[in-house]
Amino acid sequence: MVGGRICGLSVRDVRFPTSLGGHGSDAMHTDPDYSAAYVILETDVGDGLKGYGITFTLGRGTEVVVCAVNALAHHVLSKDLRDIVGDFRGFYRQLTSDGQLRWIGPEKGAVHLATAAVLNAVWDLWAKQEGKPLWKLLVDMKYCRKVKLVKKKELCTEALKDGWTRFKVKVGADLQDDIRRCRLIRDMIGPEKILMMDANQRWDVPEAVEWMSKLAEFKPLWIEEPTSPDDILGHATISKALVPLGIGVATGEQCHNRVIFKQLLQAKALQFLQIDSCRLGSVNENLSVLLMAKKFEIPVCPHAGGVGLCELVQHLIIFDFISVSASLKNRMCEYVDHLHEHFRYPVIIKKASYMPPKDAGYSTEMKTDSVQKHQYPDGDVWKKLLAAQGN
Amino acid sequence: MVGGRICGLSVRDVRFPTSLGGHGSDAMHTDPDYSAAYVILETDVGDGLKGYGITFTLGRGTEVVVCAVNALAHHVLSKDLRDIVGDFRGFYRQLTSDGQLRWIGPEKGAVHLATAAVLNAVWDLWAKQEGKPLWKLLVDMKYCRKVKLVKKKELCTEALKDGWTRFKVKVGADLQDDIRRCRLIRDMIGPEKILMMDANQRWDVPEAVEWMSKLAEFKPLWIEEPTSPDDILGHATISKALVPLGIGVATGEQCHNRVIFKQLLQAKALQFLQIDSCRLGSVNENLSVLLMAKKFEIPVCPHAGGVGLCELVQHLIIFDFISVSASLKNRMCEYVDHLHEHFRYPVIIKKASYMPPKDAGYSTEMKTDSVQKHQYPDGDVWKKLLAAQGN
């Protein structure tokens, strides 16, 4: 039975010193330390089950999100899990409509990332109490339109056909160098394989159109994050110019809420929609975006990588495939083979495909030892690094 | 001479227990404690001049903004003020493009409010070193297009003609009650005086159109914040429906950056633009919005009230009048007679008009005694209140 009073909420600042190896850097994020604000919920049930929730961050600023989680804690503590999930819409609204806290959002920035971490923990706890992986909990919900129940095997077989045939190149820093590298890659992979480009918000609107027109000869499937994630009409202008050249616009990893996604869809501003499991307000808000994308017939290709993003988002794409879109056409999900060893239920990839997770929960739980070592600034890893830097 | 190395940055969490008196509450913000993250900058010049910067908050969450200010501090400390203002664009970009911190924004939410507080302090310090009120510093800048230099007196005379002839009513909670109250107020003020309505984001898009169509008979000049501040296309739909009924859309106090304002203007989504001196990235970003508004011929009517918003924004509207719009048509600036006693250079209102401030700086400095008493949670005011609440 689902239930139990939430009697404990703790939050940790966990950072992995990835900037030392230059992992995951791009034109705008040059020295990321992949990090997470990591929330742990406990109940008074005595079944030993805890809920774990993360939101992904890049190092500095994680302490700001931790602070925001603590500011939200009073909305969660002493609530019964049964009441939360019984009126999840009401609970979601309570968190995002706090009459004082909403001023520092609303529904954006640090406080929304904190909301995601807290709600991710609630979903993990709920799925664990139900004894199901999160994707199965979602698929079994009656209110979700079940298009058809495709066997899990089909997921893998479809993706297997592709194998690793998709490549992404970062662009936007230097046009001549981009031309050189894109030509090299296209020559290497041949004309049939899929090439994607990612500008990480480097351009303004006319610049994006001009630059990509010059890269069109290399037949990219999409240009990702061509400009400010807030510029819906800018994305629409870029789409209008590039779609005739065969290039779609992909964006979403820094879109801060469903209202922005709604407008991107309304304005025909994107051809590929990239949800982020930790920036939107958890499963709740991601579901609303999946349903909107279905309505507009736009494929969802989630952002992943980071810390735990692959672990979380696999539940959402499996749900999307089984219960919403029922299609793999033009759909893919990022994968980076990095930092999975810190998770208790890491993703399993076989033949270039995510395998549906079978453990109960949202795959959000990290290994205790990893958390201890990487806590900032007191974990062993950071104590040593900071001492070496003379801090 | 302008200059000096920034050798100190401190930030305070200052809260006024305004919720006790029910001041400033609305449909979405029911119990605000008007508060500020208050930044103090010191240089090594030895002239005794400090820069003071605030951002406005509503109580809970101020500690999150304080935390974000501390996360930004390393971009400011040890910099020379001359170098900062010599390449202010570069400095602004440095703050908003921090490769790790921008993930928790970018340019929105807690980290952007913190940016505003820090930059407000920089502008205050600069204006003080120049010995000018901020509006005069701006007016004297050569890069600003000077339309004409209207004598200050004209500002006051123009506004005096109006006196207090403008009234605003909060709507959105109950339609029948709104009709009753709007009828009462319109009957009271007569057909000539200006009535404005404010929904504080309560509605979705069709609801806003339907509700306001039913309040149109009371001839409101505008409906303020009819829906989510992120919904640019929604505001455009509402504008399109209401402008033929003689009702304009006003919004902006929760628009989080210039990119959103750009789109609101492009989409014809508002007829009155309400900047906020503490939500946007200080004077820098507000200037870009004032110039865009001029280009689209949309009047700027700033949001004020709160803590210190009137003190700050008066500089911006005076600059707008003298150097950008050169017009008072359809322009007004909110005023609430509240909490000014805590400021060292409070606004002066005569005959329903803001008087141009004459003291050097951005009017951001609070009285030391007020700050001490209202610091959260250790100031006397809060120690007593929290003890009374048994915390």
From TrEMBL, chains A, B:
Cofactor(s) the record lists: Mg(2+)
Domain of life: Eukaryota
Keywords, comma-separated and alphabetical: Magnesium, Metal-binding
Limits of the Mandelate racemase/muconate lactonizing enzyme C-terminal domain: 147-244
Keyword Iron tagged: no
Pfam family, one: MR_MLE_N
Signal peptide: none
Protein name per the record: Mitochondrial enolase superfamily member 1 isoform X2
This protein's encoding gene: LOC101406947
